[in-house]
Fold each of these.
Amino acid sequence: MVKTKAGLYELTADVSQSPLHNHDIGPTKVAQRTWTTYNIAALWIGMSVCIPTYMLAAGLVAGGMSAWQAVFTVMLGNVIVLIPMVLNAVPGTKYGIPFPVLVRSSFGTLGSNVPALLRAGVACGWFGIQTWIGGSALNAMMLALWSGWPSEGIGKWIAFFVFWAINVYIIVRGMETLKRFESWAAPILIVFGIAMLIWAMGKAGGLGPIMSEPSKFKNFGEFWKFFIPGLTGMVAFWATLSLNIPDFSRYARDQKAQIYGQALGLPTTMTLYAFIGVAVTSATVVIFGEALWDPVAVLSKFENPLVIVFGMFWLAVATLSTNIAANVVSPANDFQNLWPRKINFVIGGIITSIIGIVIMPWKLLSDYGAYIFNWLGTYGGLLGPIAGIMICDYYLIRKGKLDVHDLYVRGGEYEYSGGFNWKAIGAFVIGAGITLIGKWVDSVKWLADYSWFIGFAIGFVLYWVLMRGTEEVDLSLVPELDAVPEAE
C-alpha cells in the first residue's frame, strides 16, 4: 500500500484474481476519490427528502407528543446516529473499501455475509416501499396530465413499473450517474419543500392548530415512556446507513469532506423536512378541514393541474434520489460479497429491484404507519450490535489499521476459522437476541424500547471482551509515497 499526504491509502498489490474481489467492490484508487463536501451533503439531502421523512413526526404526534417535541426527537435521533455514521465512514475514506469488505475485518472473509445480507434484506424492503410510493406519485401526475389515464387498477400498476424501470436505469448507469443526479436534485428538493411550507402558512394564516397543540402526556414519566422508543425509531431510521456508509465515503476526497458533508446534510435536512411535514399538515386542518399527513394527498387537493404535475414530479424525484442511494447501492454491494466473481454492481442492483417487487410492498403499506414504526424498532435491534462490533473492531482492536490486501484474499489475517469469526457472530447473536426478547416478553419490554442502544452496547462490549489480545496490524513498514496523485 501507499499513502498520500491526505492520509489516504491505496492498494498497489494485484488482488484481481482473488475470489473475494471484483471491479465494483475493489478498493477505490485515490484518483477516484473525488466527492467533495457538497457531493456528500447533496447525497444526504437527496436521501433524507422523501415521503417517510415528511411523515416521520406524524407517528410521534399521533402518540401524544406536541409538534415541537416530535421535531426535536427527530433532530436528536439524527444527531445521535451521525456519530456511528461518521466513525464507520472513516475507514471507507482512508482505505477506499465498501461496507461488505470492511466488515470482513470483524466477521471474517466469509462471515461478513451475515451482516451484509441482513443489511441487504432491510434495503430490499425499503426499495419496494419507496418504489410503490414513487409509483403512486407518478400515477397522480398522469391523472392530472391526461383525463384518459385509468384512475384505478392498470394505471397504478403501469406507474409502479415505469418508476421501477427508472430506478433500474440509474442502477445500470452506475455511481457517477448517481453522484450527478444527487448533486442536481438536492437544491431543487430543498427549494420545493420550503415553497410548500410558505404556501401552507400563507393559506392558513400561520402554522395552524397542530403546531400549537400541547403535549397529551400528563407528566414527565408518561412522556419518557413514549420518548425513548420514539427516539430509538428515529435512530433506527438511518441505522442501515450507519453500517454501509463506507459504500459512499470511499469516494470522498478526504476525511473533512465526509465529516462536514454528513454533518451538514443529515441532521439539518431530516429536521427541516420533519418540521415541514408537521407544519404543512397542521395548515391543512385550516385549509381543507382535515389533517393530511400524506403529501400526495395534499397535492391532489389542488385544482391547478400544473401545480399537481410539478408537485408530483418533485415527490417522484425525491423518492428516486432516496431509493437509489439508500436502498440500492448497499444491497448491490452486499450481494456481490456473496459471489464477487459472478455478481457485479449492476447484477446486485437488479437482484435488489426484483426482490423489491417480490415482497409485495403494496401489502406492507396497507398499514403504513404501524409497519414503518414497528419495523424501525425491530431492525434497529438487529443492526445496533453490528455497528457496535464494527466500531470496536476498527478503533479498539485494530487501532485504525487494516491490511487491505488481506481483506481481499482467503487465508490471510481475516480468515479466522474457515472464513468466520465466531466471536463476532456470537456477540451479534447475543446482542440482537437480548433486544428482541423485549418484543415478546412484556416484563422486559424496555429492552425493545432501547433496542438500538442496547444492541450497540452489548455488541461493542462483548466483542471487545472476546477479542482482547488480538494481534494488531503492523503498518509501520508500509511505504509512504507522497507522490500518489490526489483527487482533483
Amino acid sequence: MEIPDIRRRVRQALEQAKTQSAERHARADLARTAYAAFLRDVATPAFRMFGNVVKAEGHGFAVFTPADGVRLVSERHADDFMEIWLDTSLDPPQVSTRVSRMRGRELTAKEEPLRAGAPTNALSDEDVFGFLLANIGMLVER
C-alpha cells in the first residue's frame, strides 16, 4: 500500500469518527432533555407515591432526588435502595435502574434498562411501578 492511500483512508476514518461522535452527542442531548421531563413528570411522582405506600405499610423508606435521578432508600440501611438514572454510556442513552442490597458484608447490585429499547418519551408510570414492585421484596426481606 502507498502512503497517499493510507493517508486518505486515515483522513476518512477520522472524519467518520468525528461525524459519529457529533451524532452521538446530539442523541445524548436529546435523551437528557426527554429524561429531565420523564424524571420530573413521571418517575419522581411515582417514587414518592410508592414510598408513601411502603411507609404506610410499616417499612421505612425515603425518596431522594439526587442530581439526574430518583432513589428509594431504606431508612435502616443506606446501602439498600432502588433508583432510576440515565445511562449515557449507551448509544442511544437508556433510562436504567439500579437495585442495591447489603446483607452483612455482602453487597448485591443489579443494573438493567427500565424497559430495554424503549425511548424515554415512551416510558410511563406503569414502567416505574413495575420496576418498584418487582424489587421491593428484595429490600424488605430479612
Amino acid sequence: MSKRQSLFVALISLSLAGMIYILFRSTDMYMFLPVKACGGLSSLNEIRFAFAGCHLPDWFLYSLPDGLWLYAYMLIVRCLWYNDNSVIKVLFLSVLPVFAITIEVLQFLSLYFGTGDIIDIVFYLVFILLYVIF
C-alpha cells in the first residue's frame, strides 16, 4: 500500500470509528465534554435520534472502533516512516498493539481495571493482520 493509500485508509478508519462513537455511544463519555461545553449536545442528539432505531451488535459498537483506532495508528506510523525500516519505526509500530493486547489480557485476568474482552483481542489481531498483509 502506498503512503497516500495508507493515509487515506487511516482517515477512513478514524472517521468510521469516530462516527460509531458519535452516533451510538453514551454521551456521558469524556469525549463529549467539549460538545457539551460548546452547547452542541442538543444538535448532536438530533442527529443521533435519526439513528436511534438502529440496533447494532455489541462487537460493532465496542470492539470494531478499538480495532479501527489501532489500524489507523499503525497506518499513520507507516506514513511517517515510509520506506524506512529503522528500529524506531518498529518500536512505534509495535508499542500500541502490544499495549492494547496486554491491557485486554490483564483485564481478563482481573489484574487491571476494566472488563477484558476476547472479542477486542480478536479485532486487534484482525487489524494487525490486515496491516501486515497490505
